[in-house]
């Protein structure tokens, strides 16, 4: 076959390659825009290892409270530790008991890590004195794990819940309940940043459900797995 007769063949081949390349690049762009690229290949909001699974949200704001032993605890005291946070009150007649039971279960598994702790913050500081918190903590064998029960200024507590952890807390119109709050747990890394994973639909979540609710199970396995990811990082 002569060079002259080869020319249409190479032109056609070149056109096919250009068309294929165009569609390949377009598909890659669409894939990235649809957030379908594996997270470990993306750089935003990630640390080298832990963020392969977990996104970094805001840093926990400054706080200063008193624990069940009468000791002052601040957010800076918790730097260097991975910890799980919830908001509760000791006279809660609804979700606090299952939340505390679930936190106790988490703590049993994670207590082997020296740099792990749990933090339960009371939204009823007028009643929940250190002595009251200590008695409540004893119900869940908190003395066998590193579990801080904190109390302090009410306005600061509510501000921390809402602005720091995006957690709903408030006083209830129902005198039998008195307070309302979410049943969620938050996971915090060693640098004080809130961390979480994507849900089943590929959306980033901010917290983990600490109780079974609306036929959905508590996310205990998820938060334990993610805490261990941070602890082993």
From TrEMBL:
Cu cation binds at residues 92, 96, 181. InterPro entries: SCO1/SenC, Thioredoxin-like_sf, Thioredoxin_domain. One of its GO terms (molecular function) is metal ion binding. Belongs to the SCO1/2 family. The chain crosses the membrane at residues 7-25. It holds the Pfam family SCO1-SenC. Residues 54-225 form the Thioredoxin domain. It comes from Nonlabens marinus S1-08. Keywords: Copper, Disulfide bond, Membrane, Metal-binding, Transmembrane, Transmembrane helix. This is Cytochrome oxidase biogenesis protein Sco1/SenC/PrrC, putative copper metallochaperone. Disulfide bonds join 92-96. PROSITE patterns: THIOREDOXIN_2.
């Amino acid at each position: 076959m002569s060079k002259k007769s080869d020319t249409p063949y190479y032109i056609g081949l070149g056109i096919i390659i250009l068309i294929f390349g165009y569609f390949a690049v377009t598909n890659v762009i669409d894939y990235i825009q649809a957030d379908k690229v594996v997270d470990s290949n993306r750089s935003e909001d990630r640390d080298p290892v832990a963020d392969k699974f977990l996104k970094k949200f805001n840093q926990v704001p400054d706080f200063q409270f008193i624990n069940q032993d009468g000791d002052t605890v601040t957010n800076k005291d918790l730097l260097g530790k991975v910890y799980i946070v919830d908001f509760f009150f000791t006279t809660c007649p609804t979700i606090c008991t299952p939340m505390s039971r679930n936190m106790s279960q988490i703590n049993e598994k994670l207590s082997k890590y020296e740099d792990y702790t749990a933090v339960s913050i009371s939204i009823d500081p007028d009643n929940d004195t250190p002595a009251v918190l200590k008695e409540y903590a004893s119900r869940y064998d908190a003395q066998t794990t590193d579990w801080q029960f904190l109390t302090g200024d009410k306005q600061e507590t509510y501000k921390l819940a809402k602005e720091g952890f995006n957690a709903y807390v408030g006083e209830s119109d129902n005198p039998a309940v008195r307070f309302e709050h979410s049943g969620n747990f938050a996971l915090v890394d060693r640098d004080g940043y809130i961390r979480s994973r994507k849900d089943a639909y590929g959306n980033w979540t901010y917290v983990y459900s600490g109780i079974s609710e609306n036929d959905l199970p508590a996310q205990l396995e998820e938060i334990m797995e993610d805490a261990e990811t941070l602890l082993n990082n």
